[in-house]
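fyi for ur records
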Amino acid sequence: MGGDLPLDYYDRILIAIAASLGGGVIAGVTTVVGFQAGLLAGAIVATVFVYDAMFRNPPRPVPSPRAKATAIVWHAFLAVLVVLTCL
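which gave:
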């Protein structure tokens, strides 16, 4: 194996989610906490990572000039429809 595998931000998020759920399962099995309580704690920690990936730092596509032009044309079309409806 020898090569370094570069991990993207979202790869690290997926690893953190799996690690928190796995840690909750391990804590639930090996301690007196109880399996369901350990899994719940792991799920709560995983929820923080999911929230961060979806809402605080969501993946965004690279904007293209064609996409910008399409958005402008669509909004102009909607504006014309609104004006014609109001007349």
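Helices lie at 9-30, 35-56, 65-86. thats all i got for now
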